[in-house]
Amino acid sequence: MKKILIANRGEIALRIIHTCKQMGIETVAVYSDADAELPYVQAATKARRIGEPPVQKSYLNVEELLRISHEEKVDAIHPGYGFLSENSAFAKRAIDEGFCFIGPSPEIISMMGDKIAARAAMKEAGVPVVPGSEGDVTSVEEACKVAGVIGYPVMLKASGGGGGIGMVRCDNEEAVKQVYASTKARAKAYFGHEGMFIEKLITNAKHIEVQVFGDQHGNVVHLFERDCSVQRRNQKVIEEAPALSLKESTRQAMQNQAVQAAKAIGYYNAGTVEFIVDEDENFYFLEMNTRLQVEHPITEQIAGVDLVKWQILAARGEKLPRMQEEIAANNYAIEFRIYAEDPFTFLPAPGKITGYHLPERTYARVDSGYSDMNAVTPFYDPMIAKVIITGRTRSNAIELAKSYFTEAVVEGIKTNIPLFKQLLNEELYEKGTYNTSLLSTVLNKGGAPQ
Q1: How many Cα atoms sit within 13 Å of 264 on the Cβ side?
Q2: Euclidean distance between CA atoms 2 and 23, whole angstroms
Q3: Coil, strand or helix at 181
Q4: How confident is the model at residue 29 (pLDDT cuts 50, 70, 90)?
């Protein structure tokens, strides 16, 4: 594997380029007109214009991506995360046209992308799933009937959804009736089909995910778990590893279940099994992400691995670099996703960055997609960087993070850095006893971050 096309942009494209350089692999970056000046474009061995800024004309433009891949004679395509990373049709097209797709098989991507099929596969593998409908609910009457049986509150979810999109909380039958049609239409618009299902909403819950990795020889390992409970709009903001707020027995059970699930479906390459954990530490399968996660750096920091390198090796057909007994968790890592957004309303705040100071430190890794004077446009996700703080313990990592954010500066646009400063001094966060309602609790109590 001598040349890889990266079908993505921003910080993840730069992250993949970094590993490829270390491995002596050439890279081809693609960029839209809006991204021409971003750092990853200059960092790649070669960069090709993919199209106009809208995603359908650029990063979701399958025909153009494959045309460039052929012209550049690349050996493989790395999809990164988001965009086409969990699009089984794209993975199959890439393979059929002679490229190595750096990820799991198209069949596995398809199965896990269908939330109904994923639930069924997990149940068959002996993994606990959240109580809910066994298939799509096809009418508002059926939705209300299922919700009445499992009990409110419930989540109405798009079968093809993910990343916090296509899900609505319903606290009673009237709510189900009110949102059923609009949620169905949104599912069709976002994911191409209108299938929906219902799950019991586990309240006061933690969102925990287990990093798994498999090779094409049947070996699967876990690289511990991440606590992703600090969220806004069902999307992650801060992630930590490992999830030491849980009992050791709970953590081990989740790790074992995740590996068992991956083996049962013949999984290979990087994947994440997500669980929802209730107050009594009962855990239930939520979804499986068949790609590299945004928050993969905290796993790399505690386990001392390069997951992008592992992905490339697995795609080449090589065995896992380490077996389970050779993987240990050292230190504690916290990732902060810096977004160009209002820290109180969470609304995107695009604009030009006029000052950019996110320094690297011995304890701080910065995976950034932007630099000084770059423009954050409204066309894509507003995340501009990830700051990963690594400490000896959780309390040590929190103290280091407090110190770091006294000197971190992004000027010209609004960011959520003020929110981090506030959260790091919240007793609920410092104790580690929070759940997915933390952000709303803090903001309702104290108002906008200063």
Answers
A1: 18
A2: 9
A3: helix
A4: very high
Sequence-separated (6 or more) residues with CB below 8 Å from residue 289: 86, 112, 162, 209, 271, 272, 274
Q: Distance between CA atoms of 28 and 8, rounded to whole angstroms?
A: 10
Strands (E) in 67-195, as ranges, are: 76-78, 100-101, 154-162, 165-170
Those residues with Cβ within 8 angstroms of residue 30's Cβ, 6 or more apart along the chain or in another chain: 5, 6, 7, 9, 47, 48, 49, 50, 58, 59, 65, 68
Cα-Cα-Cα-Cα dihedral sign, residues 64, 192, 55, 287:
negative
Residue 140 CB: number of other CB atoms within 10 A? 16
In the chain, the amino acid numbered 54 is P
H or E stretch at 109: helix 106-113
Distance between CA atoms of residues 38 and 352, nearest Å: 12
CATH number of 131-200: 3.30.1490.20
Is domain 206-446 given the CATH code 3.30.470.20 in the classification?
Answer: yes
Whether 206-446 and 3-102 are alike in CATH topology: the answer is: no
What stretches of 223-273 show up as alpha helix (H) in DSSP? 248-264
Residues 6+ apart with CB under 8 A from 317: 216
β-bridge pairing 269-277 and 206-214: antiparallel
pLDDT value, residue 3? 99
The DSSP annotation for 304-326 comes to T--HHHHHHHHHTTPPPSS-GGG
Domain boundaries, the chain: 3-102, 131-200, 206-446
Task: State the DSSP code for 378.
Answer: T
**Catalytic residue numbers, as ranges:** 291
Assigned architecture for domain 3-102: 3-Layer(aba) Sandwich (3.40)
Whole-number Å distance between alpha carbons of 324 and 222: 7
pLDDT tens digits along 141-194: 999 999 999 999 999 998 877 666 778 999 999 999 999 999 998 888 877 778
